[in-house]
Design goal:
The chain has about 90 residues and is α+β, with helices and mostly antiparallel strands. It contains five helices and four strands, in the order H-E-H-E-H-E-E-H-H. Strands 1-2 form a two-stranded parallel sheet. A two-stranded antiparallel sheet has the order 3-4.
Length: about 90
């Protein structure tokens, strides 16, 4: 949480975040996700590395894997694309 606050203090144009919800209670994960959504609305680009869908589903505009953008579109389009969801956003 402290490193996130320090990063935001610099008014970044790009925020690179690796698993921000790791070790946080579900309510805190939701708050962090809401914070990221607000930043995105303000034009901050967010590169999110995340295994859990909680925050990723709130923010995702593109899905990348193995260094290649695998999907580019709205969340509704992502929800409708079963192949991409199964390959890149699910476990098992």
């Amino acid at each position: 949480m402290l490193s996130l606050a320090r990063a935001l203090a610099g008014n970044p144009a790009l925020l690179v975040v690796d698993e921000p919800g790791e070790g946080l209670a579900p309510q805190m994960v939701a708050q962090v996700g809401a914070c990221f959504a607000t930043l995105r609305e303000r034009g901050v680009a967010i590169l999110l590395i995340e295994e859990r869908l909680t925050i990723a589903r709130m923010l995702a505009a593109r899905v990348a894997g193995h260094g290649v953008v695998q999907f580019d579109g709205s969340l509704a389009s992502l929800d409708a694309n079963e192949a991409v969801r199964r390959e890149w956003l699910s476990v098992g």
